[in-house]
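Hi,

Apologies if this is the wrong queue. I'm a grad student, and the batch job for Iron-sulfur cluster assembly protein from Terfezia boudieri ATCC MYA-4762 produced an output file that my downstream script rejects. I'm not sure whether the problem is my script or the file. Here is the sequence I used:
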Amino acid sequence: MLTYQGVSPLLDHYNRPRNVGSLPKSDPNVGTGLVGAPACGDVMKLQIRVDPQTNEIVEVKFKTFGCGSAIASSSYLTEMVKGMNIDEAARIKNTEIAKELCLPPVKLHCSMLAEDAIKSAVKDYQSKSKRAVPTIGEAA
Ligand code: FES
Ligand code: FES
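Support response: The file is valid. Your script probably expects a header line. Output copied below for reference.
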């Protein structure tokens, strides 16, 4: 397990969450994922800003109304996906997050929330960018 100056990654991300905040939803290059965990009712909002030329995620922000593991999972995820291609980011598995943070089995759904959030943010970006750039032949 990686440690940050002797602190576990879970506690470190919980105590000093990275990339907390919001991006403007109206920005055509911003994708927003808003997901809830059926198991506990916790909610996570994750936003990505994508470079339309390269499909690379250049900025990430999150807000999580949930438990410590959900906060740590989303904070860790934001560091993971920055600089990633959106297709790569959409393939992230919650088990990668759970493993890095050493989440116990009862907290697996907290990392699932982070996986769902990034998938949903990528989807939102893709549906927005389709609207913004009509393909040739598409009716006006
Ligand atoms: Fe309440 Fe997750 S169950 S914070
Ligand atoms: Fe529900 Fe962590 S997200 S307990």
